[in-house]
Amino acid sequence: MNTVLITGTSSGYGQQTARHFHAQGWNVVATMRTPRPGLLPESDRFRVVALDVTDPESIAAAVEAAGPVDVLVNNAGVPSIGVFEGTPMARVREVFETNTFGVMAMTQAVLPQLRERGCGVVVNVTSSVVLGHMPLSAVYKASKMAVEGFTASLALELGPFGVRARTVEPGACLTTNFAARATNGTAPEELVPEPYRAFARKAMADFTGQELFTRESDVAETVWRAVHDTTGQLRFPAGADAVRLAQAK
């Protein structure tokens, strides 16, 4: 029976992906910074493991606790919205620490076992921001574009060993905690200096007024498809809005 290790499963795309793989009969190692009972179904095929992808000791402990895995899904990430001029560099580094370096660190920790067995898949969840030019997302997009480039090169390095690397690019999902997570508790106006505020208000209105959005199930199903794809496709847009952006690109 196959085993998948998924990061960032406390909510959203990660949690739905964990549920989807479990429903398909897989063993699931669901990781999150602070495990909480009741978030995921009770099952002998579900294990919840504490993991902070920015902490090397936490990564080592989680990978050891997980045991052999066939698939790594790097889903853990932090959103970030705001004008770049108003975004503190400490926040920029925090975003990259999770979204970019966390992905690299987890991948490096799991790769040896995949390479030695000569099979396996690494799926890195990025974002539809890589598919188009969007305001108020400079830091977030930069962190995800880095992962896109990383994965493209990684796929070439791993190919000779029978290991695949893929990206899944989810569109926007309107969740109640998105703004709070994206601003990291900072009042939105602090991230948008006064000269930018009229522009930012219009940009946010355009975003929330768009017709197409992504469902959590769209992402889970696309991750599943990316894991099982054997055509060599590298990038997988997930959700109606992401698919439309990919087609336009």
H/E topology pattern: EHEEHEHEHEHHHEH
Strand content: 5-15%
Domains, number: 1
With helices defined by DSSP (H or I, 4 residues minimum), what is the helix count?
A: 8
SS-derived structural category: alpha/beta
CATH class: Alpha Beta
Average pLDDT, all residues: 91
Query: Total number of β-strand segments?
Result: 7
Read across the widest sheet, the strand sequence of neighbours is 3-2-1-4-5-6-7
Low-confidence blocks of residues = none
Q: What overall geometry do the principal axes of the alpha carbons give?
A: globular
Q: In the CATH classification, which architecture applies?
A: 3-Layer(aba) Sandwich
Distance from N terminus to C terminus (CA atoms, Å) equals 38 Å
Tell me briefly what this model is.
Helix 1 crosses helix 7 and helix 2 (56-66) runs parallel beside helix 3 (89-117). It is globular and about 55 Å long. 45% of the residues lie in helices and 14% in strands.
Describe the structure.
The protein has 8 helices and 7 strands. It has one domain (3-248): NAD(P)-binding Rossmann-like Domain (Rossmann fold), CATH 3.40.50. The protein is of the alpha/beta class and 249 residues long. Strands 3-2-1-4-5-6-7 form a 7-stranded parallel β-sheet, sandwiched between helices. Helix 3 (89-117) links the parallel strand 4 and strand 5.
Question: Which helices and strands occur, and which strands form pairs?
Answer:
Layout: E1 3-6, H1 12-23, E2 27-32, E3 46-50, H2 56-66, E4 71-74, H3 89-117, E5 121-125, H4 138-158, E6 164-170, H5 178-183, H6 197-208, H7 216-228, E7 235-238, H8 240-248
